[in-house]
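Appendix B, Record 12. Input sequence as logged:
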Amino acid sequence: MKKRMFAVLLAAAMTASLAACTSSTGEKADEPVKEEAGEEAPAKAGDAPEQSVVKWNCGTSGNVLLTIAENKGYLEDEGISIEYVQANANADAMTLLATGKVDVVSNAGTSNPLQQIASGVDLTIFGGHMVEGCMPVVAKKGAEWNGIESFIGKKVAVNPSYFAFTGAVMDLGYEDPLEAVQWETYSDYNDALAAVTRGDVEYALMGTGQNLSVQELAANGEIDIVSYQSEIMKNYSCCRMEGQTEWVNENPNTVKAIIRALLRAQAYYENNKEEAVKLHAEKIEATEEYVAAYMLDDEHYFVSVDPLKNSVVRAWDILDKTGFLDEQAKDIAIEDHINTALYEEALEEAAELYGDEDPEFYEGMAVFFEKNDQ
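Logged structural output:
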């Protein structure tokens, strides 16, 4: 009981913290594409999207793949436009989704949608955004670091709902990671950083948006960047892309159109990262230096449209074992809330339609899907 109460309190704090979440039906195009004499009909993957305007929340940090897909006309090619709906925090984004005020959330992490599903909200994960979010672990200058072992028995400014860390502690053989480490939860990454510099905690996890300031502090010799969340757990699943299950099921062509457009954007991104920095900095009204601090870190920042089913299932299991899911999660098969079929179809269609733009990319995405979703 004590452990469950502790977990519930921490989960409540997590939903208020920062993180590194009504359908609008358009006209359905039933008219066949007419072919003029001497002209080929444009490539077409299938039926037109059921919904032409998609209401989307992508947080204050935005979604670089969405930025590219809009800028390069990939969404327009698929008959889709985006209506952005703002939210102040991840919890607010998930409320917008649960109440049908947005169709898609892509930046509210993985714990948040999984906790919503566990509490009875019928959501489906159908794609992804960040696989690894370039989230540094910092300590005072000269601090010892021996991997996750260094957390044991120490005070750390890491919310234990961040399953990469609790999962890694369990992998060391600790049955109860909540007891093995003194987890301290802060509502703001800047407060967590201040706790490190004061010596209140040994280590602190920083968000993706803190990279520039953290790198400057490290360069000045004030702190050390000892690790990154992606080094604690590879492909941990930073942010998933989800919608209400009913919406996903009723709009399969819309979902596939979104995925095809974002796949083209990912292909472009991987070959043009410096331009992507410029485009995204303008989109979120930030400096290029700020965006480059995380986006050009190829070792720790990784985006993908792939649903990453295996990592999501792993996250669900860790959250359940550590008490961060509602009791009714025991009766929920999380696999029923991860739709990989639409992604697989969209990937095949995108490869057929746009594969000539970057054959190696689409081949690589097919291999990645086999490894991470089967």
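Residues 235 and 328 are 27 Å apart (CA to CA).
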